[in-house]
Amino acid sequence: MPLSSSEAPSRRLAECTEYTLHPHSDASLKKETPMGFTDSFFARKFGITEHDLQNYISEALSSGGDYADLYFEYVSTTSISIDESIVKSAMQGVTMGVGVRVISGERTGYAYSDDLAPEKIKKAARVAAYIAKGPSSVEKTGLDEVNKRNLYPVLVAPTETSLSERVALVKRADKAARDADSRVIQVQAGYADNLRHVMVATSDGSFSFDRQPLARMGVGVLVREGNGSPQRGSSGGGGRVALDFFLNEKTPEYFAAEAVRQALIQLKAVPAPAGEMQVVLGPGWPGILLHEAVGHGLEADFNRKGVSAFSGRIGQQVASPLCTVIDDGTIQSRRGSLNVDDEGQPTQQNVLIENGILRGYLKDKLSSRILRTQSTGSGRRESYQHIPMPRMTNTFMLAGESDPQDIIRSVSKGLYCVNFGGGQVDITSGNFVFSASESYLIEDGRVTRPVRGATLIGNGPESLKYVSMVGNDLKLDEGIGVCGKEGQSVPVGVGIPTIKLDRITVGGTS
Amino acid sequence: LTPTEYHDLANRIIRNARDRGADAVECSISEGSQFTVNVRMGEIESLTEAGSRGAGVRILVGKRAGSAYTSDLTESGLDQMVGSALAVAAITTDDPYAGLPEVSELGQVEAAAEGLYSPSLESMDASAKIEIAKATEAAALSFDPRISNSEGSTFETHLGTTVFANSLGFTGSYRTSSCSLSVAPVAKQGDSMERDFWYSIARDRDKLEKPEDVGRRAAERAIRRLGARKVATQKVPVVFEPRAARSLLDNICDAISGDSIYRKESFLTGKLGEKIASESVTIVDDATLPGLFGTTPFDDEGVPSQRTLIVEKGVLRNYLLNTYTARKLGMKTTGSASRGLTGNAGVGHGNFYLENGSTPVADIIKSVRTGFYVTELIGFGVNIVTGDYSRGAAGIWIENGELAFPVAEVTIASTLQQMLSGIESVGSDLEFRGSIASPTLLIREMTVSGQ
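The joint structure predicted for all components is written out below.
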């Protein structure tokens, strides 16, 4: 999970603030009228009929089983990168396929095909059926379309725009970064988008379509002063947006300036401190804390198996009463948002921790069947080649009441971390890390010198108990997060207001 | 398709691109089939079986590059792929260093293709695979009453074919097979719950470690973490067990990659011929060692695999290079081109390892008065531009030359420069478990940050 966030105020900030005031409002989100099967992408492009889907599901349940589903996916991708002011690379690609899943008790059978010919899909269905034995418990039904909102009303996806418009973005970023400061010695900028069409049909009798645009750009720079060591800075962002986002909201120049700013700060950095201390996290991407400290540990697969440090702790105090943590897949245009998850369930807002009390887990269909509750719309997968599992979408902490300046003023000796690289967690012990890439010493209530990169380490169910102040400045990240779990990568978002941790271990050298 | 049919297909794609205006073309096709079974608490949890294929093409029009890939291997799908590559080449910029290898540099090490594929895996039936996974988990669960839960065990096989051809007349392909076995038991005692894992991976079923051994080692690893605690912040010698040392080799591999060097984004830029590590350190990259996971007959540009000395007795001797980075640096490719189905080649590695030392691991531990034996590293806190190193760690504290108690929730920090020069002993326990390998290493001093 590389790259970073930025603390510059923006329209998104306003959106988030409003969001915290009305956490249950989705008034701005439009309902999409069902399109009907025959107008759907897969019906038009591959001639797949509703009858075909029912046949494939029957085939999948031919050896028995409690549930079966089909996941069709067609993804077109473009990526462009510039290095040394030369557009060295541009690539386009298409991948498509179908995954067939059969669930029998707690067992899952899975097979996939990159060929959408009927005999290939039926073969995959028969292979997936291997794990089931005996008669199927599923009654045959027709298929009804799942109602959903359109959280990304993008008429023309970035992938559908001209290549020349998109290559201009990386050229602008390159120029802006080089013009920003004479100490800039290297600039790399990349732009990537994809457009993912999915269709999910289930033996529950539901089907859903979605068209998911996603775009992201990133800028990385190296700066050097005299004969000193070069220093790196990077920035990026995006979301489920139209290309306009990069022309009007977050421009290549914005990301370039941010990357250069971060790198220049590192030129003056002193070694990071070591040991337990007070740490203030800035707003936005530092929300990676929540993703690692609590998010993964609350995924239902780990909890139903009893292998998470949070297993069996629902209703218990796992954070200070100042903390309310939410996973919300329904925020318009966000990188982690989805109209429907990868099992065809509408996404929703899930309260994970409310005023410090653990409230719920993130569930996919399998775990909700086993736990005898409802899916929370958290079933996600990297592609048709992968079995879905419970995952996060956009994970953040609601704003508190403290003025961020007061939070810093309250610390006599500590660290202020505003940007991070990646993080990782050991679900079972609950120990997690996240690596600060831009931080400063706090001395006598004032932010003083920048320090070099250092990893912070804590324990999930314990760390958030030390949150003693929560700022009024919730901000979501810029839209660059990639979350990896069991070899599957999915786009996610994080967010947090400025917070103070009274105690966490900082892994510096001094 | 047969190998010959894949060769023909690749060359048809190349002709298609040439006919439509490409001056130079590289084409890759890959095909593979996968079988995975997960077993948990004695029951099958999931079973996946499938095959997939993909093709990629990279073209040059003059000195402009364009790439495309597809999983649609129909005539129209492939035609569209070539069209995409031509379309994107129109928006790239002339790059004077872009190009294919010289004709004289192309070729393959036939012997390196041997031992990469074991037909015995083709005929292995599903029930045998399920049984192996069950036996592995059972061995872990029965090892100790404190192992009462598990994240499960996995047995996986993969069979694949890699095809590469270019417009200079190179066409090559090789088949690979692999099977792997892993298990992640959970140990519990009082409030302490810890998980660890162990695994075995091989080209051939017969070379896989026994399920009982994999299960037992995983269980031992989980048990020895129980009751782990933080230690006080201090500077001490640190011993990296091979699994942890391998991740250090991974960092070094990034730092000597031609891409990092020509962009000056590695702390090892410009250090050829200089002493960068202690004398006990020799690092080699060898993609020709028979049957290993970093072995291939040719790289992803059609250049024969080779052995490259990276660090000799502490002195940096070579970088790993593909054609592009070699040209940028005025050097020769080391046959280290690496890419997915398409795109400009990056730099990869073959079997990248630190040469075996002569000190038994027990002697290394005995030599440490107070120190930290690291068995697991987490997180990403390594900066190869500056060499700054700070990662989460877990392991066992060493007191008076003996493993004393488990430690967790600490970080270890230093710089890669100081760590390399501070390697005081190299263990005699090198083994290849994947394409990067290292024996146990003792590093003179690092900051352990805890309380």
